[in-house]
Amino acid sequence: MSTDKIVFDRVTATFEVNGQPFHAVKDLSLTIADNEFVTVVGPSGCGKSTIMNMAAGLLIPSGGEVRVDDRPVKGPGPERGVIFQQYALFPWLTVRQNVEFGLKLKKISRAQRNEVVERQLELTGLTPFADALPKTLSGGMKQRCAIARAYAADPSILLMDEPFGALDALTRVHMQSQLLETWRQEKRTVMFITHDVDEAVFLANRVIVMAARPGRIHRIIDVDLPAERTEDLRTSPEFTAIRNEVWNSVYHQDPPPEAGAPAQHDPPDDPGGEGDQINKGIWSPTRHHNPGP
Ligand SMILES: Nc1ncnc2c1ncn2[C@@H]1O[C@H](COP(=O)(O)OP(=O)(O)OP(=O)(O)O)[C@@H](O)[C@H]1O
Ligand SMILES: [Mg+2]
């Protein structure tokens, strides 16, 4: 039996921009093993959120396929918990009800729901705000609520798009340690997108560095550091060496040939032609914000 958890098999995401096809991601292949923790970094617009949305089942690839547990992804599923780049809370539900949402869908008993919800609220420091509506929360608090909701449903896969971006430095470090602790205790597969190179190295087994136009994998860097990630590690020479390697491969990439151009077109000999369709509105902003079950 395969230990591959998530497989991106030559996936392409093509959008129509100004009437022309634009490859947000092209022919990208990546296999994430069961219980692996990978982080994804790369310049803005290189397709990080696009590949995460494909794994989440919110965006159907124009070419190739994504498989989770050997089955092609056709839509969202409860085994995949998603934390979006933008806060995706139900505005009409309180913090507690947002966190409880997935548990209700799973028909978990009220007593058990309460126990899980209280633990997650405690973990994310939201207990005092349990009865508040999202509109009254700060950005960081909203994000912590989205994290609590994803963790509460206990998915085997966590797809996290810059989940800690809106947090203050101290909370961020705390949430990083907490996530690693949860990952160690109850093994799960994590795909974590970030712009923070230190965060990418601190958390991961492997760092996937992407490049833009078209979105693709530029390099994969193994993080050969002890499994136990302590705060001291952040200043060690081993950590710094890997951090510098990731930094250089993200920020010293060759500029794309048509940098600044609004869209990039198929070269005449584009092999992606066969079965390569254009996504028109399959991934609307509304769907992007929809947290799903
Ligand atoms: N629905 C869409 N229609 C047209 N173009 C799109 C659509 N969604 C994404 N794109 C384009 O695809 C490219 C990749 O977008 P994506 O959101 O995946 O980037 P990203 O790597 O997550 O960037 P960031 O780091 O800024 O979040 C961008 O050029 C973006 O403009
Ligand atoms: Mg993004």
UniProtKB/TrEMBL annotation:
Q: Sorted alphabetically, which keywords does the UniProt record give?
A: ATP-binding, Nucleotide-binding, Transport
Sequence ranges assigned to domain ABC transporter in this UniProt record: 6-237
Q: Name one GO molecular function term.
A: ATP hydrolysis activity
Q: Does the keyword Nucleotide-binding apply?
A: yes
Renumbered residue ranges of the record's region Disordered: 250-293
Q: Which domain of life is it from?
A: Bacteria
Identify one Pfam family in the record: ABC_tran
Q: Where are the transmembrane segments?
A: none
Could you tell me what this protein is called?
Answer: ABC transporter ATP-binding protein
